[in-house]
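Teaching note: in complex prediction, the entire set of molecules is handled at once rather than each chain in isolation. The prompt given to students was simply: 'Predict the structure of this complex.' The entities are:
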Amino acid sequence: MADGIKDKVVILGMGCSKFGERWDASPSDLMVEAFEECLGDAGIERNEIEAAWFGAGIDAFHVGASAMPMAIALRLNYIPVTKVENMCATGTEAFRGAVYAVASGACDIALALGVEKLKDTGYGGLPQRSRGVENDMYWPNLSAPGAFAQLATGYRARHRHNKQDLKRAMAHVSVKSHANGAKNPKAHLRREITEQQAIDAPFIAEPIGLYDCCGVSDGSACAIVTTPEIARGLGKEHLVSVKALQLAVSNGTESGHESWDGSYLKTTRIAAQRAYDEAGVRKPAQEISMTEVHDCFSITELVTMEDLQLTEEGKGVTAVLDGDFDAEGKLPCQIDGGLKCFGHPIGASGLRMIYENYLQLQDRAGPRQLADPKLGLNHNLGGFPHQNICSISMIGHL
Amino acid sequence: MAEENELSRGITGFGAYIPQARLQRAVIAEANAWFDASLKGLGRGERSMCNWDEDTITMGVEAAVDCLTGFDGYAPESLYFASTTFPFLDRQNSVVLAEALDLPRQVQALDIGASQRAATSALLALLQGDRDGMVIASEHRRSKAGSRAEMLWGDAAAAIATGGGPALAEFLGGESLATDFVDHYRGGEFDYDWEERWIRDEGYLKIVPETVNRLFENCGVAAGDIAHFILPTDQARTPPAVAKRLGINPSAIVDNQAATVGVAGAAQPLLLLAKTLESAKPGDLILLTGFGQGCDALLFRATDAIGGFKPASGVSGALASGREETNYARFLAFNDLIERDIGKRGETDKQTYLSGYNRRRDLVTSFAGGKCRTCGTVQIPREKYCVNPECNALDSQDPYSFADKQGEVLTWTADRLTFDPSPPAYFGMVQFDGGGKLMMDFTEVREGSIESGSRISVHFRVRQNDPQRGFRKYFWKARILE
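The expected output is the structure of the full assembly:
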């Protein structure tokens, strides 16, 4: 019987580029920026890396196919490099590959890096792109906000919230993240906003307005992982270990079977329970110190709080408005500013979220530092509410 | 004269479709009178206009469905599709229609075009042949911006059935005349026509009477006995002039609806026939003509069954379902009469991979999903494994049609970011009555009319145009039931 990933692998070092409209930076430049910080943090040489996982989400708009762009950009030493793509879970997928490689004993030190260059499209928002030969014949041309706006209408119908209350809670989600992001020099958007600004902003996809959407940015983040023994051998203290790494992928039930009503994220519920079991967490709302969740849109974050069992089903609106997830609240969420302020370079986001929890656990988060965090949760959701991939990772003190 | 007997042929059903959008003629006049002041005189009333996702085929499907709804499971043996605005010059448009209607593959499907009397010729051929069937006539008219035609014409479709039930109107006889009188022609994109007075005096007033008088003679009918006289034309004064010359009572003239629908080209004869059949009384004689490089004339007599057929909406229902359109720029954009900035999101490749389409034709055109023989779960699309997580049986599904189903909106949005020819793009998750769930586009949404729980019906529409290759994709969309 497999006993899970808990405490088998530790983070040796991490790096994260400045996120934003990096007109001056190529994908290679972004990768190198994150990698240099990561190497320095790990205190190893490039040639000590034995295997690498490379995450990039939308090939056509930046790096191109295969693992070669990363091997070339970082001048890796002809080691095995694997390219992974799993929509918005891509960064966490790269991390999972590297962590599993170390846990298996196949190598001692592995690298995970994610990157995305979204600002070479010539327009705002994520690139408009094909969904495949057959899907394009009958799928709506849904944009990302269009997809997640339906989570809002489905959630609203299920719990009989009125439009104004839900919209105000959604606004609060964004106000909180902007307040956090303003303190983070690596964030893309560093301006505080008011609830009224968020409520009054024009609709992008009703009821999602401009400030309910995360930014669209360029960026890269990476991690070097190894075993606890090797890390200690390298003189590392205050080790941060992987407690859980889970993934749940829709199998078409939500989109095609009436057991799902559109009001929640089924994959998040499944991946969360598996992660809690793997990490030995019994009372998530009490045991988890902080979360970085996939706030592609404010409504996603709100519903995710319920799906992660951090508040009761249907009570997300109240919990958000009560400030439960604010920086000073019971369980801070997006303490770094989240996708909301970092933007969402697809391949990088998962690793960027782990990076923040890693800094927090090492007491290195500067003005954003939380008091004595013990366990951090990262959550990504790729795709659409009715068909998606959810990844959850948890890290904490060894 | 044909005697009433069991073998007599005739019309057994009818249906119609008129796009909901009705462009106000005043806005056309307002935009164009600077160039042609005479347009002001036509600046009252309205004309129908296709939405961006409607065309000759989609309107044809609607008219056919409207007609077939009046029957109890009738599948025509022949399907004649008449138009001068087929989307495809070489791809049998009637076959697309037949698959959208999910008719048996043995159906004799045929396109008939290239004349304003295409529909009357098709109906005549059907009535004089030995198969029963349906003629569908549909026209998405194309005219130059600021033209008189733009004000007088409209988009519409109609369907006439000749089998599947008792004759509502018995076919008494028909005549045709072929003569290359070129009142107008279309050698390129738009029509080119000659002077109206010449067309009236040398065309209608000579060619129609010659044909109709022969028909009267052969059928033993007197002009004064005609109760309904249909002469499709955009010339307001021509039907009275022709009626007078023939000796037909002026009160028998069926109005061409120029100021409510617009004259619908090759669909006009059947649209007016369908309208007439809604109100005809038993015994009424109906004279239907079609004009274009000659003339067709068909004579019918309404039977005692005339009041017994009920299409889903008919012409009167379609007329009543209009909504005012006052934006002339939208009409220009929908009809590709102006080069609009569509934004970079509109630049993505719209290729249809025909081999992939062929695999999914039952889903895309016929809107068929599946019903699991093992657990009974209804689902769409039909995949190899059943979608029910408690079942997941392999190859267990029988085809199951959603084309006639209604349902309700679970989730929805109005997306202003994605590319759509008429933003915002409305779409959402639909739960069908009897099972099955699908994320689909909504069409004809009035702002504020959609909520979770709204009831919907489904309609065959254009999903995407591929201007680079001249192809277009079709799929079914949901429309809010009001």
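Point out the following to students. Chain B has three domains: 10-334, 368-401, 402-480. Chain B is about 25% helix and 25% strand.
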